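[09:14] KT: can someone run the structure on this one? pasting the chain below
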Amino acid sequence: MPVQIFSAAKELGRLTDWRLSNLEMNKVLYLAQMLRLGQTEGRDSLVSNVFEAWDYGPVSPRLYHKAKVFGSKPVGNVFHQYADMDDGDELNALKEAIEATKGRSPSDLVAITHWQEGAWYQNYEPGKRGVIIPNEDIYDEYVKRVRRPEPA
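[09:31] RB: done, structure tokens below
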């Protein structure tokens, strides 16, 4: 069952010792969303909130606005009042995304999410906010990136 973006951000902060910037949190959570959609063949997402196609890649507007006070510095725990994530498939997808992005710079994460065959690229309109990246497109990106064609 999808969790609220702030619960996922809280867990992400805990698991990374609160070292991620707003940009990094948004990109890791987007990639975790992609993983969860891929693991469930598009049926279940990690978070119930939408991602939008902004200039620097996919962004959850709610998370961005909650964390923007930190600028480019690591986001502190401003998520105290939100529920903890339960152990389960959603948490595992988040942990997998953290592991896959470990040691990546913010510019690396932007480059990864700006892939020309990806969901962000398909939905991006330069300088415009409010353009939602549909979960169907995020799942399609997972399929393009991860799945291998069946041998003949």
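[09:33] KT: thanks! Residues 22-39 form the longest helix (18 residues).
[09:34] RB: yep, looked fine to me
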